Each structure stands twice: as structure tokens, then as C-alpha cells.
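REQUEST FORM: STRUCTURE PREDICTION
Request ID: SP-0412
Submitted by: Lab K.M.
Chain count: 1
Length (residues): 308
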Amino acid sequence: MSKEKLTNVTSSLINLSPIVLFVYNRPEHTKRTVESLLRNTLAGKSSLFIFSDGAKNDKDSKNVEEVRNYIRTIKSFDRIEIIEREKNIGLANSVISGVIEVIQSFGKVIVLEDDMISSPYFLKYMNEVLNYFKDDQRIFSVTGYTFPIKIPENYKHPLYLSPRSSSWGWGTWKNRWEKADWEIKDFQSFINNKSRVESFNKGGDDLTRMLKNSISGRVDSWSVKWTYTHFLNYAYCVYPVKSRIKNIGTDKSGVHTSRTNKFDVELEIDDVELSGMNDLQPNQEILLNFRKFFRRNILNSVIQKLTN
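STATUS: Completed
RESULT:
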């Protein structure tokens, strides 16, 4: 099915979170992403919505069409709907509008881009965490990926909190997503307040720089604005201690990354009991290690494209 607008969703499909997949011009990455999703225990019971952005130029047209030819062959999900954009609207607009379209009907979403390898229990983990934290207004998003940071040996929870949201295998709810101000209307008052800038950068020293570049149009990014939404609402993203997502786009195939192995993680392939979440609170040692990971000397190879 190929169209610009979603069809109506019946109430019988709203139990599990829908999967929203954004694709563009990477056929091999897309295949690997979908194949790993199909190995998930809940794939056959899940709805999959695929948003395919239009080609930016003639150079990209061949690969965009190859991706579209492939996604039209996908089977084995409970429901598959493909939305093909006639024109290129860019990654940020594609994600923002696509999530809005789906979340209006389902109230929650699981979001992937075309370079994510998931564990067989990724969907189970995401649905469990989304259901568990749905009424906890401290939590604005959840993710299946964790950065390779040091976790204290005495930390016993399977999850931890960070003020920085994730764009790699993540999920959220309608009543949080609709709080985002994608224009960042208060940017001038924010950037002139050193204490607020310092507070925002607790999620990583690169955040303010990325926010500036996103607002100026130098970077086509939605994710830093989503992190800013967390900041404005004193909210957190829930991360797993053991990653259920592995990013394969750090091979220079993506728009915003250079080749690097800084984000490589070992993929958790077993089903892990998620317990002990009742008293989940920010852990200061983890937050410190999280921020250290994003210090500029580590990020130089990754954000070079963003700052040139």
C-alpha cells in the first residue's frame, strides 16, 4: 500500500505499540534492519508503518527506488502500511510528521530508522517499558539502545535514567510528544542564560552546539530538539543497562555520522526480566559517566560533519 496519508486504525490494533520505520536511500541497511525486526518474538503481532522519504536529487533516486521495491515485499507483520513521500522533506520533518500521524491513532510508538539491528526481544522490551512508565510524567521517552558507558558494579537495576533522549530505537507517548516545540521559541532567552545552558548540557557537552546548528538549519535534526523538550519538562529518557539495539549507520552511510566505532555495543540477545523499576531514580555516577562520554574529544570524529 502506497499513500501520503494513513488510513483509519481500528481499536483492535491498539494493544501493542506500532513500529514506525523511516527509510531513505540505504537498501542494504534497510534489509538488515527489517530482517532483525522479523526475528523479534512480537513481530507477527505488531503493526509496521514505513515512511519512505522522496529523493533529494537524481543521484539518490535509484537507491530510493530500490528501497521502495524492497519494502513493498515485506511480510509477516500483523499489518504493514507504506507511506511514500512524493518529494524529499528531510529527516527531521519526516520523523516529526510521521510520528505525529501514527501516534494520533495509537497513543504511543516505537520508532526506528533504517540502520538499527534489534535483538529478538527488542519489541518485547520496548512494549513492557512503554506500558510500565506510561503514567510516570518524569519519563518522556524510552530507548532500546545504551551508549557504552561504565555502569557502577553495585548498580542492580536493569534500566537507568538520563536527561538526554535517544534517536536509536526509541519510543514515546502522545501526551509527551505533543509537548514538543519544534521551533524552540524560547531559544534566545535560553542561550543567554548560562545556568540553563549548563543544566541542558548535563546530558552531554555537545547538546547546546547541536541545538544551535539545528535551529540555524545547518543540521537537519529533530532529536536534539526532543532532548530539549525533556529538559524543559524536567524529564528523563529510560535506557537499558544492556542494549537491545545496535547501530550500523556509523559507516559514513548516514547523513549525520562519520565512520566510527565509538558507539559499538554488545547486543543483548536474551530475554531479560525487567524488575526493580518501582524505585528507579537518576544515578549520579551513571549521569557523570554519561556526560563524560559526550565530551568533545570523543565526539570530534562523529560531529565533524555537523560543525563544518
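NOTES: DSSP finds eleven helices and eleven strands in the chain.
Reviewed by: T.R.
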